Amino acid sequence: MTSPLSHPTADGRWTPRLWGTLLVLCAAMFLDALDVSMVGVALPSIGADLDLSTSTLQWIVSGYILGYGGLLLLGGRTADLLGRRQVFLVALGVFALASLLGGLVDSGPLLIASRFIKGLSAAFTAPAGLSIITTTFPEGPLRNRALAIYTTCAATGFSMGLVLSGLLTEASWRLTMLLPAPIALIALVAGLKLLPRSTREKNHNGYDIPGAVLGTASMLLLVFTVVQAPEVGWASARTLLSFLAVAVLLTAFVRVERRSAGPLIRLGVLRSGNQVRAQLGALAFFGSYVGFQFLTTLYMQSLLGWSALHTALAFLPAGALVALSSTMVGPIVDRFGTQRLIAVGFALMVLGYALFLRVDLDPVYAAAVLPSMLLIGAACALVFPSLNIQATNGVEDHEQGMVSGLLNTSVQVGGAIFLAVVTAVVTAGAPDRPTPQAVLDSYRPGFMVVAGVAVAGLLITLTGLRGKRRAQQQSVVVAKSPVRETEQDRVPVRD
């Protein structure tokens, strides 16, 4: 049973316990996003201190992505079956312990192992936390407001990770690993008191063990292949065979899910056009942003000579804009709907990326960089909450964890795939004589790919708007009486 104190009151007001519940869930999502972005700036210091090669350093980042992206589907369905509160709290405790170990180890393999464990635990906290929100707040304005605040914390964590890493690395890279531990422990203690108790799904048709094995294996292999492809070569035998194995595993997974009485993913969920557009939109949204951030960081530090902190502060306006908009996005969604906001957000994102193509080797920040950061920040504020709302609306409570895991998988896989593609494009165009101007010119095709991915996201979203308009027109025709026509029926209908 869920405590009535854990639900909004009859007039829609949130109780203090409800605010506390949301704060705990936001803290976990903030940590997940913080951990993704914070380690990047610390990598040079880690490599120098532990005497690690470039390829080993890559796995400090990739290990987290592998655990996170590979196990999200399993994490989401586990939350539905075993109880969202239980899964969330156990995974949060593991996250805190792995953070502590990551700051104390003295070898590269142990550090990579701790990062994989953190990614694994985040793969369970993220879908469990999102499904707690969607089953606690009723669909509509209250849920939209909660999801706007929740997703804003994720975007803020990602932005703040850049700034905090720049500050902490000046003292010690170990602080970037240790910082999440006390925050996670505080959230864990608060969660034990505040999170609503949830019952396990009792009427399920058993555990889909074959589907869990095949789904997890296919996602792990896909993320691993994409992460390694820029290093070993996209056309290498290893990469091609890995992609073939992924295709075989996914085909077997689909066959198992279609026959399973209690599938890991109910494939019928993907018959909804809104659901498919939300998943593809998440792929395009996060994939384009991660590629942009990667190239922009290289541009600012390698070509312009900016410090890690200076670079982090350059991204700050985008994060600040997202944070300030947290309480305003929900009412905007209520008024205009998710499809329109996602379309506007992708349009702003495309414009921001296009403007950034003007940068040179001596940019004036206020004129060349700041406009793009503000446009991209506004896009993130509109798109990310709207995608979460669109993906979870109309879904039964017992499948909220499944859909949450699917959406987070789309986000992580999109980031891994398109970052690898951007890296490959830039690497292929690397100049023989790396003068600053030649290097900048080699970055431009990568920025074009980033903009192209955002354009694809915009086009996918626009198909939903056209479909909605067509459905409205058809509903008007069906509503008319075939026997008696009135004067009102003869008035042309306007969209």
Automatic annotation (TrEMBL):
The keyword rRNA-binding does not apply. It is a multi-pass membrane protein. It is found in: Cell membrane. Keywords: Antibiotic resistance, Cell membrane, Membrane, Transmembrane, Transmembrane helix, Transport. Residues 21-469 form the Major facilitator superfamily (MFS) profile domain. InterPro entries: MFS, MFS_dom, MFS_trans_sf, Sugar_transporter_CS. The chain crosses the membrane at residues 21-44, 56-75, 87-104, 116-135, 147-169, 175-195, 207-227, 239-257, 278-300, 306-329, 341-359, 365-384, 405-426, 446-465. It comes from the Bacteria. This is MFS transporter. The keyword Transport applies. Its main location: membrane.
